[in-house]
Amino acid sequence: MTQPENWPGNPGSGGPPPADPTASPPAYGEPYPYPPATPPPAAPSPGEHLGQQPAPGQPYYPPAGPAAPYGPSGYAQYGYGSQYPGYATPMPHNTLAIAAIVASVLGVFSLCAYGVGGIIGAVGAVLGHVAKRQINERGENGAGLAKAAIIIGWITTAIAVLSLVVIIVIGVYVATTDGGGGAGDSGSYDALAALTG
After folding, report:
1. Do 177 and 194 meet the contact criterion of CB atoms below 8 Å apart?
2. Across the chain, what does the average pLDDT equal?
3. Region annotation Disordered: residue ranges (predicted)?
């Protein structure tokens, strides 16, 4: 890597000579020998053409623009108790959405109980609708939980209603048909025969 001609320390650049690498630092309490200060080059006069390149060996200074007023900068000002950038406090999850998904999943597990799964699933779906509305109003997290609760709750309710209808139809069919049993038959055998074929 080559250094430009006007780099300080280059021979003939007019800058200070490089420090002696074999010199030892000053003893404790002695002042450090700084190189003599050189004044900065003079700024171009107002009538001088600013578009031309500086003379060889002279540093280039870009023209100064208008001074910026002391005002708000592009950086955020932080005071006592403020948040750091990029670390926003997370929004809380909607509690009703969590309750809705719990109720909907309980409805799935209670489908084996005659009709109870449908009631619990419907409660979960309704809670999911209310939670979704609250999330839209308040800007909370949990929209996915509310949507899942609505879907699972209504599917659970539909399955429970269909299974209840099938149970009622089979019960009515068995009660109204004569299975060929005698007068003393209780009818439980006929229902078993109807289910098994």
Report:
1. yes
2. 74
3. 1-63
User: Which pTM does this prediction carry?
Assistant: 0.47
Segments forming the whole domain that contains residue 126: 95-159
CA-CA distance, 100 to 87, in Å (whole number)? 30
Contact 92, 141 (CB under 8 A): yes
Tokens of 181: 């049993």
For the chain, what is the largest distance between any 2 Cα atoms, rounded to a whole number of angstroms?
130
136/96 Cα distance (integer angstroms): 13
**Res 72 pLDDT > 80:** no
Task: Give the other-Cβ count within 10 Å of 149's Cβ.
Answer: 32
CB contact at 8 A, 163 and 174? no
| Structural domains counted in the chain | 1
As a whole-number percent, the residues of the chain with pLDDT over 70 amount to 54
Instruction: Provide the 3-class DSSP secondary structure of residue 141.
Output: strand
Of the pLDDT bands very low, low, confident and very high (cuts 50, 70, 90), residue 51 is low
